[in-house]
């Protein structure tokens, strides 16, 4: 462990918190060695440019994590790093006392989105702790969360805990791009009892007080899809225009699709979310959320939620045009025009079903549709398992008593979808709290309050033990 005393001191000064972000300092950290290790590992991981393409250092992140796990008590043979193309994935197993029990899987990823140093205030791959924040690409998504889980598992071993079922921690190497390793891992761990995705869920801090408002766990996610629309035409000289023009045809279809709203939908999970989250919204939005939860055909509620970019994706499938290309010369009629429609599909629907609906909306048989989706698969919501809900609720109460806990559905995709597709329940349950205004995942100057470290370790110790008994 590098400079553990210095790191522990940094945590004590930088957090000033116990039992949740925003609390006053009440004493020394309860797990100082694990907390220091989590921050140290996160800084080392951030310094490795784990971005797809030339110079991808995801394999080095995997080696870093393996080294920490082996030093923390895992057998070398139980921690495997497997190269795949320019990346790699890691699977580590802590054997339980009952070989017949299905394993608990803790899931994360090591890769990050590209970051150009010239665009950032600080170099994205030079970790910096400043003003109580850890800065760097991956500080939020999700190198700190990954090292928190690693440090917590090592702490459990240090304290002498003996799991009944195997605990498997795994990290994919291309979650931000093709998700090839994500699918491989899910197949290898298809016998899991439950997957705890530490890259999903999380808490919201009050913008004014920085105290926890509420915490959500993720039980479902919308399916990512891309559909390519193409119109072809013989073309000709621009001085002799024709009624049928490839660009015009495509444009008209895109307008129809843009004006179309898929049927609003509600699930048990999203109903629970709307009822609870309504309390923390402005009066108009909150009233609409309650009304929609009571009646998903309520036109006024639908209109209000549809008009809000933060809520439209929560009430059904959305599809938007994201790219367009057409024509081949300034003085020629277009021979070809193409566009991409990106969809986020409500759980329970398959991609061909949505593409067929888009064809109907486009209302032009001359337009061809092609599914060009990569790295995504449709999945249903995970069941609202009582043992999981009890474990994460208990874990959250140990660090933030009184903070509301309720489910949510993610609009983006994660590794969890591959496990759900195989019938394995998967849940996002990160303990990290952040202000909405400071969530810079995938964006510039990514950062996370290091005050999360102490409570997160305590939370993971509780949850990992509860779910592996």
Could you list some keywords that capture this structure?
2 domains, Peptidase_M20, 19 strands, alpha/beta, 469 residues, Aminopeptidase, six-stranded mixed sheet, globular, metal-binding, protease, Alpha-Beta Plaits, Pept_M20A
Can you offer a commentary on this structure?
With 469 residues, this protein is α/β, with parallel strands linked by helices. The chain folds into 2 domains: 4-221 and 379-468, Aminopeptidase, CATH 3.40.630.10; 223-371, Alpha-Beta Plaits (2-Layer Sandwich). It has 13 helices and 19 strands. It has helices spanning 4-15, 32-46, 58-71, 143-158, 180-188, 246-258, 268-277, 283-294, 299-307, 351-362, 386-399, 416-421, 453-468; strands spanning 79-84, 87-94, 104-109, 128-130, 133-135, 167-172, 194-197, 202-205, 212-221, 223-232, 236-237, 318-326, 332-333, 336-345, 368-371, 405-410, 426-428, 433-434, 447-449. A 6-stranded mixed sheet has the order 1-2-6-3-7-17, with helices on both faces. Strands 16-9-8-18 form a 4-stranded mixed sheet. Helix 8 crosses helix 9 and helix 11 runs antiparallel to helix 13 (453-468). Mean pLDDT is 93; it is low at 4-10 and 12-28. Keywords: Hydrolase, Metal-binding, Protease, Zinc. This is M20/M25/M40 family metallo-hydrolase.
């Amino acid at each position: 462990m590098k400079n553990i005393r210095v790191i522990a001191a940094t945590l004590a000064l930088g957090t000033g918190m116990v039992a949740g972000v925003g609390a006053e300092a009440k004493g020394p950290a309860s797990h100082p060695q694990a907390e220091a290790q989590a921050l140290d590992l996160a800084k080392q991981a951030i310094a490795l440019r784990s971005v797809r393409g030339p110079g991808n250092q995801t394999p080095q992140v995997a080696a870093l994590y393996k080294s920490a796990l082996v030093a923390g008590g895992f057998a070398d043979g139980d921690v495997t790093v497997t190269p795949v193309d320019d990346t790699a994935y890691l699977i580590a197993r802590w054997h339980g006392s009952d070989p017949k029990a299905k394993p608990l899987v803790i899931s994360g990823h090591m890769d990050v989105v590209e970051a150009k140093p010239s665009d950032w205030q600080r170099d994205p791959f030079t970790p910096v702790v400043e003003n109580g924040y850890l800065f760097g690409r991956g500080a939020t998504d999700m190198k700190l969360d990954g090292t928190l889980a690693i440090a917590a598992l090592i702490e459990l071993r240090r304290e002498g805990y003996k799991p009944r079922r195997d605990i498997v921690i795994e990290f994919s190497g291309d979650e931000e791009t093709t998700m090839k390793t994500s699918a491989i891992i899910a197949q290898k761990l298809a016998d899991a009892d439950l997957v705890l995705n530490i890259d999903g869920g999380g808490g919201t801090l009050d913008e004014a007080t920085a105290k926890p408002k509420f915490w959500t766990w993720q039980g479902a996610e919308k399916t990512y899809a891309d559909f390519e629309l193409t119109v072809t035409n013989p073309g000709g000289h621009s001085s002799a225009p024709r009624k049928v023009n490839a660009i015009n045809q495509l444009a008209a279809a895109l307008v129809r699709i843009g004006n179309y709203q898929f049927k609003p939908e509600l699930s048990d999970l999203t109903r629970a979310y709307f009822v609870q989250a309504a309390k923390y919204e402005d009066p108009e939005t909150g009233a609409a959320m309650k009304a929609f939860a009571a009646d998903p055909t309520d036109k006024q509620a639908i209109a209000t939620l549809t008009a809000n970019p933060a809520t439209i994706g929560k009430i059904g499938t959305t599809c938007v045009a994201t790219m367009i290309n057409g024509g081949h010369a300034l003085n020629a009629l277009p021979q070809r025009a193409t566009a991409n429609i990106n969809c986020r599909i409500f759980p329970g629907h398959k991609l061909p079903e949505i593409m067929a609906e888009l064809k109907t909306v486009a209302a032009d048989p001359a337009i061809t549709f092609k599914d060009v989706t990569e790295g995504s698969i449709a999945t249903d919501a995970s069941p609202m398992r009582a043992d999981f809900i009890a474990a994460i609720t208990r874990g959250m109460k140990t660090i933030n008593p009184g903070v509301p806990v309720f489910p949510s559905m993610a609009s983006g995709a994660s590794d969890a979808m591959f496990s759900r597709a195989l019938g394995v329940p998967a849940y996002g349950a990160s303990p990290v709290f952040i202000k909405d205004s400071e969530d810079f995942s995938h964006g510039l100057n990514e950062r996370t309050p290091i005050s999360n470290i102490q409570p997160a370790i305590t939370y993971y110790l509780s949850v990992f033990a509860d779910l592996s008994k």
